Amino acid sequence: MARARGSSSQPGDPPSITPEAAVPLLRRQHERGDSILASRPIPLDIYDGWHSTTLSHLVRAFGSKDNNVSAFETIGRLLFVGPETEQEAELDRSKYLSRKLVLLVSCIEQLEDLLEIDPGRKAVPKDARRAPSKVNVFIGHGHNSQWRELLNFLRRDERYNVIAYETGVRAGYATSEVLQELVEKADIAFIVHTGEDETSTGEFRARENVVHEAGLFQGKLGFKRAIVLLEEGCEEYSNIFGISQLRFSKGMINTTFGDVVQTIHREFPAVPSR
Question: For the chain, which residues score pLDDT lower than 70?
Fold first, then answer.
């Protein structure tokens, strides 16, 4: 039985469009948001325009008092304690846009669950998706070298074709072009989040490009096939609690390897077992 859209005990305007109509609208907004994020700096009017249009679509898809709508509006609400420079404000806009994109993926998946369509937008049963004989596994990462441990581990298994930004010839291609090629090729993605950028409060978070990659691959593959590997001490961004993640102690990414393999075979059971 299909589950209802995000519940709320408060009265409000009900959904005004069907899930079938809402999915392509929200997907276009996700693609637009990714494009804006990849073209920083983000002007205030561009951010506000994207936010307003996306919020309008969410209200039409879920209703004005739905929890998804409330969560989307909540991201970016701050109690300002002092004036911001434009550089600081732009950094906040990029951070909030990344978080809104993550939430938007969840909203799209909820609607797709009602329709029982796949992330490629084909109206087919979910169990009819392609079962590759060799799984293309993407690894996203920052500067921390632990990701190479996962790369080397998976490469020892002939069932996996492991890809990363560094695994092909990239000279002459823009970063956005390379990422789009990798997104199209990947069957499943593991994004390694290690604390590398220090915040004003002394905490450490994943590099912005890594957070962006998580949203990009989740938008294409869905939450179950775009998993965050989160190192202890790395700041969690808003909405990460709704994202599939594997946690590991500092410097101990190897402790996730068993779960990584189990995740791959959960999603691709037709791939031969050892």
Answer: 1-12, 77-84, 116-133, 168-173, 237-243, 272-274
Structure tokens at 255: 């402790």
Question: What global pTM score does this model have?
Answer: 0.55
Please name the residue ranges forming H helices in the chain. 19-38, 44-62, 67-74, 86-115, 147-155, 175-185, 208-221, 257-267
Cα 64-19-2 angle, rounded to 5 deg: 100
Q: Sign of the CA dihedral 178, 181, 185, 190?
A: positive
Phi first, then psi, for residue 135 (nearest 5°) are: -85, 130
- Mutual orientation of helices 175-185 and 208-221 as an angle, nearest 10°? 40
- Measured CA to CA, the distance from residue 168 to residue 180 in angstroms comes to 13
> What's the chain's length in residues?
274
Quote the DSSP letter at residue 13.
Answer: P
CA angle in degrees (0–180, nearest 5) for 157-258-240:
115
